[in-house]
Design brief:
The protein is an alpha/beta fold and 400 residues long. Helix content is 38%, strand content 18%. The protein folds into two domains: 150 residues, Aspartate Aminotransferase, domain 1 (Alpha-Beta Complex); 229 residues, Aspartate Aminotransferase, domain 2 (3-Layer(aba) Sandwich). The protein has 14 helices and 17 strands. β13 and β14 form a beta hairpin. α3 packs antiparallel against α11, α12 runs parallel beside α14 and α13 crosses α14. The radius of gyration is 21 Å and the shape is globular. It binds pyridoxal-5'-phosphate. The site of pyridoxal-5'-phosphate has 15 residues, from α5.
Length: 400
């Protein structure tokens, strides 16, 4: 099959949920991807904030191939060492006492919804079922997680969704009390919003949210699926906000590219979940957990996180120096950065690809930059140069 027939066939055999460029990727090394023609692309997207260690990291490959030759799947009916070791490291790294493994961010949020509902009904009775999330939020595409996702276009075709969800305005303290009450069982928030446009939370907002949850006996759930595990320069993004959540959901980078996720919870919540309440066939398997242990250990090494913070600063400063009238705002934390343009970013993404740079979008008008956490300073400089030239050309074409 030629590259051309791959994308032709894709149109016939795949449900058409993703408009894709006519490129067929073949392999990746570090922060560079190669298509089937051998063309190189600098990766400023990391598979949507997943490939934290870049592509084909040798230690990761050794871990995964070694584990694949030993044991890949056994189900949650039995113990494996890597699952328990990874769980111990994760709960030891934050406020949580226990966790439940899943395979994706959406599943992590589904799990958190169920845990919150059970905690609330057991502790306060049957009426405390409401949930709250924020404007611009993205918590996933499965029906529960979609109910907490703000974007109308994603929700409308699938309604009715889970009832009793209200959306408070992100970073607006005044809207908290209007949307949380004594029947709220949990509030979901991304400390740095990703898909919704790359908006970091104001510390005062997250702190006010914590206080409101305490006042109304609601759980505060931080969704760190995209911003967690080192991406913002601290292990967990909420550490930078001086708050202690009740639950946290994580996924994307945890196994360095293999599907994994987890819902972490305090003992008060977790102790109410008993056999039969929840389950998952694949989650926490020995292969993904071995990859997770390797990835977690690398990211938690001394110096790794301060490097991420340093490189994030370089990238943000570099972007802020772009002298382009097309840019409305540049914002972000660590290596999760958004550049809001005055026009839709689609043409910029396409031209950047032609110029050998992968950048993502976050909504219509925002470029999202989230490279592997292992990206080098030289690669940051090359990517910035490509992006600046691309923006110049596209802005001229758009007559800006
Ligand atoms: C903050 C956040 N939560 C949840 C999800 C859903 O994760 P998944 O696509 O793995 O189901 C995403 C995906 O982008 C996300 O960014």
């Amino acid at each position: 099959m030629t590259s051309f027939s791959v994308h032709q066939k894709a149109e016939q055999v795949l449900v058409q949920t993703y408009p894709r460029p006519d490129i067929v990727f073949d392999h990746g090394i570090g922060s560079t991807l190669y298509d089937e023609t051998g063309k190189a692309y600098l990766d400023f997207g990391a598979g949507i904030a997943v490939n934290a260690l870049g592509h084909s990291d040798s230690g990761w490959v050794d871990t995964v191939t070694g584990q694949a030759g030993k044991l890949v799947h056994i189900s949650n009916l039995f113990h494996t060492r890597s699952q328990i070791e990874l769980a111990e490291k994760l709960v030891g790294s934050c406020f949580a006492d226990r966790l439940f493994f899943v395979n994706s961010g959406s599943e992590a949020n589904e799990t958190a919804i169920k845990f919150a509902r059970k905690w609330a009904s057991q502790t306060y009775g049957p009426n405390k079922t409401n949930l709250a999330a924020c404007t611009h939020s993205f918590h996933g595409r499965t029906c529960g997680a979609l109910s907490l996702t703000a974007k109308e276009k994603y929700r409308a075709p699938f309604e009715p969704l889970v009832p009793g969800v209200s959306f408070l305005e992100y970073n607006n303290i005044a809207s908290i009390e209007q949307n949380i009450g004594d029947n709220t069982c949990a509030v979901f928030v991304e400390p740095v919003q990703g898909e919704g446009g790359v908006y970091p939370a104001d510390p005062a907002f997250l702190q006010a949210l914590r206080e409101a949850c305490d006042r109304h006996n609601a759980l505060l759930v931080v969704d760190e699926v995209q911003c967690g595990l080192g991406r913002t320069g601290s292990l967990w993004a909420h550490e930078q906000y001086d708050i202690v959540p009740d639950m946290m959901t994580i996924a994307k980078p945890l196994a360095g590219g293999l599907p994994i996720g987890a819902a972490l919870a305090s003992e008060e919540v977790a102790s109410l979940i008993v056999p039969g309440d929840h389950g998952n066939t694949f989650a926490g398997g020995p292969l993904t957990c071995a990859a997770g242990l390797y990835t977690f250990d690398r990211i938690s090494q001394p110096g790794f996180l301060s490097e991420v913070a340093h490189k994030g600063k370089l990238l943000l400063e570099g972007l802020k120096k772009f002298n382009s009238p097309a840019i409305v705002e540049t914002r972000g934390k660590g290596l999760l950065i958004g550049v809001e343009l005055s026009f839709p970013v689609k043409s910029v993404l396409e031209s950047a690809l032609e110029n050998g740079l992968i950048v993502l979008s976050a909504g219509e008008n925002v470029l999202r930059i989230c490279p592997p956490l292992t990206i080098t300073e030289e690669e940051i400089s090359s990517g910035l140069a490509i992006l600046e030239n691309t923006l110049k050309t596209v802005a001229a074409q758009e007559s800006i």
